[in-house]
Design goal:
alpha+beta; SH3 type barrels
Length: about 100
Amino acid sequence: MPAEFLQGPIGSFAMIGLMLVLFYVMLIRPQQKRAKDHQTMIGGIKRNDTVVLSSGLIGKVVRVEDKEVGVEVAQGVTVKVVKAMIAEVRVKGEPAAANDAKT
């Protein structure tokens, strides 16, 4: 009986439905969660936070506006960055890597 069910038209629709459910659970839902987490991270940005941009630049936030952020990438060098391009917000005063040689 189960083998005959899968070979009929109802079985074909059931397999397509199962594939759509798996597609949603495996791909769409995690992407939506990642986007929501990124939005909350962006919403919590404040002055003096250290941020990593999507290009790899690391800087300190000096000004926060609605859709843009002023990031100081070097002493006296401030760039205006769209908030969506911030990849990571690091904790203020995060320690440097142990393998950095300071001479």
